[in-house]
Specification:
37% helix; DUF3081; DUF3081 domain-containing protein; 2 helices
Length: 87
């Protein structure tokens, strides 16, 4: 998955969810994706479709998932949100 998702893409999706999402106990939820950050704001998390994405410094990210289908569904949702954010 090297360089599949860049930091601008992830931050745009995160910000769109923060601005338009519904408040939940976990964070803000939008289109089935929950977005939240650690207390210092340096690490952001996007979670949904059986996937947890963690993104931090130096344009790095890590995806936790059990099946490739989960990852594919998750990325499709992120793409949808990114496109919506840029309309």
């Amino acid at each position: 998955m090297k360089n599949e998702l860049d930091s601008k893409f992830l931050l745009t999706v995160f910000e769109h969810i923060q601005n338009h999402g519904e408040v939940t106990e976990e964070g803000k939820r939008y289109e089935g994706i929950v977005a939240y950050s650690d207390p210092d704001g340096y690490t952001i998390y996007l979670q949904g479709s059986g996937v947890l994405l963690r993104s931090g410094f130096h344009n790095t990210y890590h995806l936790d998932y059990e099946q490739d289908k989960h990852k594919d569904d998750f990325i499709k949702k992120l793409d949808y949100i990114f496109k919506e954010a840029n309309e």
